[in-house]
Write a structure and sequence with these properties.
Number of helices: 0
Low-confidence stretches: none
Helix content: under 10%
Strand content: 25-35%
Structural class: mainly beta
Distance between the termini: 128 Å
Shape: rod-shaped
Mean pLDDT: 92
Largest sheet: 2 strands, antiparallel
Strand order of the largest sheet: 1-2
């Protein structure tokens, strides 16, 4: 029987395959039985070239890796060597999908995309670097993996719809939680001189027998109740 890596046409002559990178099964009868070994490609019984990156080669045929994937080395012979490109993550069945806004991936492989940290956002699809994560505007913050500037919500002490539209709570008001909520007035008979207050504790009580309207900004807003007067305004010493 004709030995491996050879072919025997007509049953008379044994001929070796043209080079060491070619293989042929035992009992081959023609030159086209000599094909490039795994990890190489080329025509039968001719020159074989190593399989380049981004491909896998078997039976002498070069196969390109699926969309958005590549290999990290040359000479691969199996589709399993194809890994997701940077900016893409594994989606199953040899498929890769792009990282969504708010995330990035800077390495080749099946790893998950990395979320932009809280306080940043990214609008980029298929981002490849943490440099695409932009800081939120002043006086705002965002959850991890935020994909738009509008996801940057107002800090406590600031009110608005997020992005660039957050303004400090004026004196006489406060805002405890982050988000789009409006500032809350200090209650009746109280005042606050603090801007961007984050707690109801900043609201000070008027003196005894004095009252003020909600949202008062200073002690002078506290007015004596009926039947009482402020000695300081009349030069009276008690």
């Amino acid at each position: 029987i004709c030995p491996v890596n050879s072919f025997c046409p007509g049953g008379n002559v044994q001929t070796s395959c043209a080079n060491a990178l070619l293989i042929a099964p035992e009992g081959s009868i023609a030159a086209d039985a000599c094909i490039c070994q795994a990890g190489y490609f080329g025509l039968p019984n001719q020159v074989c070239s190593i399989c380049p990156r981004g491909s896998w080669c078997l039976g002498g045929i070069r196969n390109v890796c699926p969309l958005n994937s590549t290999t990290t080395t040359e000479g691969n012979s199996d589709i399993g060597a194809c890994q997701c490109d940077i900016g893409f993550t594994y989606a199953g069945l040899n498929a890769c999908r792009s990282c969504e806004p708010g995330a990035y991936k800077s390495v080749i492989g099946a790893a998950n995309c990395t979320a932009c940290v809280g306080g940043t956002y990214s609008t980029s699809v298929g981002a490849i670097s943490s440099g695409t994560c932009q800081p939120c505007p002043s006086n705002t913050f965002s959850a991890a993996q935020s994909g738009a500037r509008q996801d940057c919500y107002c800090n406590a002490g600031y009110s608005g719809v997020g992005g660039d539209n957050c303004v400090a709570c004026i004196a006489g008001t406060y805002k405890i939680n982050a988000g789009p909520q409006v500032c809350t007035d200090c209650g009746d008979n109280k005042y606050s001189t603090i801007v961007a207050a984050i707690s109801a504790d900043t609201c000070q009580s008027c003196s005894t027998f004095a009252y003020s309207s909600p949202g008062s900004k200073s002690p002078s807003a506290c007015i004596c109740q009926g039947g009482y007067f402020d000695p300081a305004n009349f030069g009276v010493t008690l």
